[in-house]
Amino acid sequence: MDTSAAKPEATSVQSELPNAEARANLQLFANAKVSLDALSAAFESLHGQTMQMAAVNGSAGSKELTESVVWFRQEISEQEQRHKEGLDEIQRIIDDLLDKQVVEQMRDQVEQEINEHIDEMVKDCLGECLKAHIPKDLQEEVEDSKRELERARLALYNSESRRMNSKLRSDKPDEPLDALVMSNGSVSAHFPKDLQGLFTLDAETCKTLVQEYGLPEVSDSRDKNLNRFMQFCGVRYQLVECSV
What domain of life does the native source organism fall in (predicted)? Predict the structure, then answer.
């Protein structure tokens, strides 16, 4: 089977390794290889110059210098061999690191995609089975029960938040305020983070919070809206007095 089409995908995964530490290690190895390549080139150049010197000195008849050059050539050859072995070892480490990183990345990605696909398939299959084998009125009853259960869960969450907020005191304005959720299960972006933030809400924000949390009797009065929202949050006292 022709596997050439799969190579670009592996290269793409390799080039997008998410692990910053792995990329740093890979860059370190790459830099080392570049440095060793430069050293190898220098050895080869020096080796060539040595050969040329040996030829010149040989023709000149200088036995002592020729022996020195031969010894030096042998030393360079041994150094070059050790250098090549070092390069091979670094290349092996780089290849091994890349293989492990790519395989691990691909394994995690494939497992995630498989799990997501299976979850979607199970959800679709279950939905079709329910439609086929459960009467419509019973399905509606199940959906109503699910919605009721969700409302109960949100109410329980808010009840616990109110219990925690009831312990807060005005002499500790930096104490965090436990957030309450709206009917959709999210927390309003305007919800204050602590008592100080609650006490200093402006009129527009007070009105917005009362509306977002579905509190009754929205007023144009900041004091009324603030007191109503404080009671909703579980704060046991009123900081402001409403004007008559």
Answer: Eukaryota
Asked whether residue 7 is assigned to any structural domain, the reply reads no
Q: Chunk the chain into consecutive blocks of 10 residues (it has 244) and report each block's average pLDDT, rounded to whole numbers.
A: 44 46 57 56 60 55 57 67 74 71 69 76 72 73 87 93 90 89 94 92 95 92 93 80 49
Q: Could you list the residue range(s) of the whole structural domain that residue 195 is in? A: 169-233
Query: Residue 182, Cβ neighbours under 10 Å: how many?
Result: 15
> Residue 32 domain-assigned?
no
